[in-house]
Amino acid sequence: MKAIQLVASDAPLEVKEVPMPEPGDDEVVVQVAGCGVCHTDIGFWKDGVPTKKPVPLTLGHEVSGTVVKAGADCEDLLNREVIVPAVIPCGECELCREGRGNVCRGQLMPGNDIDGGFAEYLLAPGRGICVVEDRSGYELPELSVIADAVTTPYQAIVRSGLRPGDLAIVVGVGGVGTYCVQIAKAFGAQVVAIDVDASKLDVLSGHGADLTINSSETDFKALKKQIKEHAKEWNCPGHSWKVFECSGHPGGQETAFGLLTFASTLMVVGFTLAKGEYRLSNLMAFDATVQGTWGCKPELYPEALKLVTDGKITLKPFIQTYPMSEGPAVMQKVADHEIAKRAMLNSHTLVPDIEFKEIRYELRPALDPAGQPAEGLFNAWIWLDNPKQFNSYTTDAVKEVILAFRQASMDRSVVSCVFTAVGDKSFCTGGNTKEYAEYYAGNPQEYKQYMRLFNDMIDSILRCDKPVINRVNGMRIAGGQEIGMACDFTVSADTARYGQAGPKHGSAPDGGSTDFLPLYVGFSHAMESGVLCEMWSAHKALFIGLINQVVPVLKVDGEWVPNPMVITDRFLDEFGNIVYGDFKGGAEKAVAKELLAVAETDLSKLDEAVEVLCTKVLMLMPDCVSKTVNGLRKHKQWHWDNTNVTNREWLALNMMTEAKAGFRAFNEGPKGKREVDFIKLRQMLAEGHPWDDDLLRAISPQYQQES
C-alpha cells in the first residue's frame, strides 16, 4: 500500500510503498476514507516538533474509515465505519482510571506514536474506536475532522463547565476554533468569536457566533469594552467568562489571557512553540483558572459525533477535500496558510492518471430504465486483456487490476463495476502458467511476494465500495474462478465453463475457492470441483447456485440457440438422476459439435443482461446498497481473512515440489500430454524418494519426450 511519509524535518514528504499491516488480537486495520490535515502535522514536518516514533513516519491523526481486518478481541468492529481517536489511551493506568486518559503516558497518537492516516490503511488499537452508526447525510471522509478539530474543543468546553447563558469567548477561529464556536453555541452560551481574518469571522456569523471581532482592527481596550457591553445586553454576568484560546499564536494567547476577569476560566487549546510573557498574579487577583487540554478522551467521541449528526454543529462549510495523491502539495499549502478551510485528503486513487497497459479500464454511461445515459454517472468496466493466453493474468496485470478496482471504488460517479475479459473464449484461466513455470517454479520467495499481490487483488474486489458484476464471456477456471467468486453477481454466456485445475497441475485452489466454493454450492459440490477438477457448464453453475444468470451467445442462421454441448431440454434421465446442465456425450455430443461448428458467437445479449443488472443497482439507494453488499460479503470475507495468509505461505513453499513439477509440465509438455505421471509420482513417493531433479525428470512429460 502507499503512504505519505515524513522522512526528515522540513524535508519533502514522500509517497512510499509500505507493507500492508496485519492486526494483533487487540488491533484493527482501517481502510482510510479521509484524513484531515492539522497544524500539528505541519509542526512535526516544518517546525521540528519531535515525533515519538522515529522517521520515516506516516503523518495524519484525523482519521475516518472502515475496519477491514480485526484481531480476535475486536471482531465486533469488522466492517464497521469508524472514527479513530487522535489520542488512544491504554485504558489501564492510574490516569486512565481517573478519567484523564487523554494524557495517559502509554497513549498512542496516529501520526506521532504510530503511523497515521495519510495512507490507504491504518493499523490502530481497537480500544476507544468510535463506531459511526449514522452519518446523517455526511460522506464518511468528511467525518474525519471529528477526530481532533471537533473533539478537542468539545473536551475543552466540557471541562470548562460551560452552561446555558454563559459568555464564551473563542480566540482564533481556524480549523479548531470554528467548531469551538459552534459547540459553545450548542451548549447554550452567548458566543464571541475573535480573529484577525475577516473572511473566517463572516462565515461564523451564521454558524454560532453572536458577536465577531477582528482584533487586527481593534485595540485591546476597545475589544474588551465591546465584549462587556454585549455581555450586559445579553444578560450574561460580568464574571465567570469562559475563554477558549484556539489560535496557537502568541498574539492570540496574550489576548485570551487579557480577557480574564473574576472567576473566569481560560482553556488553552491551541499550541505554539513561541514563548509569551504574562502576569500570573492576575490569576490570584481574579481567582481565575487557566487550564490546558490535550486532545480528547475517546469516551467523549460519541457525544461529539452526535452533535454533528443531530445538526447542532455543521462541518461542510469549513472543510475542503483534496485527492490523497496531492497530499504533499496540500500540506505545503496549509503550511503556507494558502488554504482557509480544514484540508482533508480523502481520495485514495494514489496513482493518478494511471495508464493501464495489461488490462483495460473503461467508464461506460450508466443507463436509466429507459435505456438513456444518466448524466454524470458511469459503470466501470475492467477488462482482462490477454486473449491469446486465455486471459490468464500476469504479475503486472494483477497490479493493474488492484489499481483499477481502487480507482473505481473511489470514483463517486461510478455506480457498479463490471469485471470481464476480451474475446469470447475465456474470462480467465488463472495465473499465467508460462510465467509460473519460467520464473516462479522453484522460486518460493518470489512466489510468496506474487501471492501477496494476488491476495490484494481478491481484497480489492471483496472490499470494493461498488457492487461488482462478473461478466463471464468464456472459461472461468482455476484462479479465474476465484476472482470471479470474489465478485457479487455473475452474468454468464451459456458457453462458459467453470472449474478448478489445481490438483491436476500441482497446486491447491487456496486463492479463494476453498473459502468461497462451499458457501456458493455446498460441501459436496465444492469437493467435486476443488478436488476432482470436474468442469461445470454455465447451466449447471446456475442450477447449483454458483452464478446468477445465463444468456445465449450462439446464433445459427441468425437465430439464437442454446449451447448445443449441454443438456438443457430435460431435467432427469431414465433413472431419475439430474442431468440438466451436464455436458453431452456419445452420439449427442457428436451432433452438438456439428451444430457448434456452424454457429456464430454474438455477445450482445450478454452485454444487454449486464446493463440491465447495472440499471437495477442504479435505481436503489446507494448507501443501503453498499451496506447490504458488504453485509453479505462478510461471509466470504470471514473465511478469506482467516486463511489467506497461511495459504499464501503454503502455496509459496509448494513451488519447490508439486507446483514446480506441474506448472513446468503444463508449460513445456507436448500437446495432449501436459500433466505429470501421477502414478509414477505416487510410486516414487511411496518408496521414500525425495523431491529432487531425478524425480522431476521421471514424472515430467517434457523429459519423456526427450528420451
Written account of the structure:
The chain is α/β, with parallel strands linked by helices and 707 residues long. The protein is 36% helix and 20% strand. The protein contains 25 helices and 29 strands. Strands 3, 5, 6, 7, 8, 15 and 16 form a seven-stranded mixed β-sheet that branches. It has a six-stranded parallel β-sheet with strand order 11-10-9-12-13-14, with helices on both faces. It has a six-stranded mixed β-sheet with strand order 17-18-19-21-23-26, with helices on both faces. Helix 1 packs across helix 10 (327-335), helix 12 (433-440) packs across helix 22 (658-668) and helix 16 crosses helix 17 (523-530). The longest helix has 33 residues, at 622-654. It is elongated, with a radius of gyration of 32 Å. The relative contact order is 0.07. The mean pLDDT is 92.
Secondary structure elements and their pairing?
Blueprint: E1 2-6, E2 14-17, E3 27-36, H1 39-46, E4 57-58, E5 62-70, E6 81-84, H2 94-97, E7 121-125, E8 130-131, H3 151-160, E9 167-171, H4 177-186, E10 190-195, H5 198-204, E11 211-214, H6 220-233, E12 242-245, H7 250-258, E13 265-268, H8 281-286, E14 289-292, H9 301-309, E15 319-323, H10 327-335, E16 342-347, E17 359-367, E18 373-384, H11 395-410, E19 414-421, E20 426-428, H12 433-440, H13 444-462, E21 468-472, E22 475-477, H14 479-485, E23 489-493, E24 497-499, H15 502-505, H16 513-521, H17 523-530, E25 536-537, H18 538-543, E26 549-551, E27 554-556, E28 559-561, H19 586-598, E29 600-601, H20 604-618, H21 622-654, H22 658-668, H23 678-686, H24 693-699, H25 701-706
Parallel strand pairs: 9-10, 9-12, 10-11, 12-13, 13-14, 15-16, 18-19, 19-21, 20-22, 21-23, 22-24, 23-26
Antiparallel strand pairs: 1-2, 1-4, 3-5, 3-7, 3-16, 5-6, 6-8, 17-18, 24-25, 27-28, 27-29
